[in-house]
Amino acid sequence: MEEEAGVLKEGFLVKRGHVVRNWKVRWFVLLQDKLLYYKIEGGKKEPSPKGRILLDGCTITCPCLEYENRPLLIKLKTKTNTDYFLECCSREERDSWALDITGAIHAGHPVQVQELHRMKNSFKLLENISLHNIVERMYDSSAGIKLTRNLDQGNRYKETFTGSALVDWLISNSFAVSRFEAVTLASMLMDENFIKPVGVRSTEATRSSDPSEKFLDDSTALYMFAESSKKNTSSKEEVYFNISELSGTIVKQGFLVKQGHKRKNWKVRKFVLRADPAFLHYYDPTKEDNKPVGGFSLRGCLVSALEDNGVPAGVKGNVQGNLFKIITKNDIHYYIQASSKAERVQWIEAIKPLT
């Protein structure tokens, strides 16, 4: 087995195929000198890897903006010029994988490892900040960001703020220590759809290929809360899901394995947990349209861990370990598998308060 040398990190990522350019979920295992990936069949990792990426001489690009509908990509180019595109389920996951892979690539070069620790520490601040907390503070009527009427090329905008006002506000509220850090945070708020550009100047900047130039620290660039634009969404946008279901604050997201309702087969899905209103939606990570393939309200749901010894009742296909079950108010049973006991606990603890 190749995996005997210490595993640095493992988890689900979505990989672009080499021959047919389709996207498949694979289980990735990061070792000191290579990244192995495995096919998942019936909720289980196959015993031998489907492929390996040798890290020696590899270059990494993150963020990688080559696919418009897949913003959370990491690109690896091997010494032999093979490109690998790997998609993560959230910005935090992407940054964490990118740091660990970069660490493995540079493990033999102490100078670069020092540089990496510096990078890690400068992001420490960002990791410990919840974007939801920032947005809540921004809305605060006394300490929040001041909303004003602004003119942009003859158009009048109500309830907006300028890029430089947000940067000042983030620093004065100790969310960031430098303007560079505040711009990074503001870009994250924009990426996660908490704020949006209004007017020509700020909208044009979002088309920049350089992530550090997407948000403008500028007193003529205007932004507003994305919330206030909710009313303009057309009814066509969500065919199956009421737009209000998808408007809640994202509390947690990640890849989990779910048992199908009809065919009872196990598939990897990206789960997104939202509050206000409390819903759990799941998406097919191989598709680009970013529409949920299923979801349900958490009000009145029961969630519980399932027995780890043997296959619990209701579970098909000899899948066992790290399972949990959600029973909806309408008595529909969802069987879900996490990739570790700790991950199962985190999901259950995140869902419980919303039921």
Task: Describe what you observe in this structure.
The chain is of the alpha+beta class. The chain has 7 helices and 20 strands. The longest helix has 18 residues, at 110-127. It has helices at residues 91-105, 110-127, 131-139, 163-172, 179-191, 200-205, 341-351; strands spanning 9-16, 23-30, 34-38, 40-41, 44-45, 51-54, 59-64, 73-77, 83-87, 148-152, 155-162, 195-198, 222-225, 249-259, 266-275, 279-283, 294-297, 302-305, 323-327, 333-337. A hairpin with an 8-residue loop joins strand 7 and strand 8. It is globular and about 65 Å long. It is 23% helix and 31% strand. The protein starts with 8 loop residues before the first strand and ends with a helix. Helix 1 packs antiparallel against helix 2 and helix 4 packs across helix 5. It folds into 3 domains: 7-117, PH-domain like (Roll), CATH 2.30.29; 131-225, Orthogonal Bundle (Arc Repressor Mutant, subunit A); 243-352, Pleckstrin-homology domain (PH domain)/Phosphotyrosine-binding domain (PTB) (PH-domain like, Roll).
Characteristics of this structure?
globular; 20 strands; PH-domain like; 7 helices; 3 domains; seven-stranded antiparallel β-sheet; alpha+beta; single chain
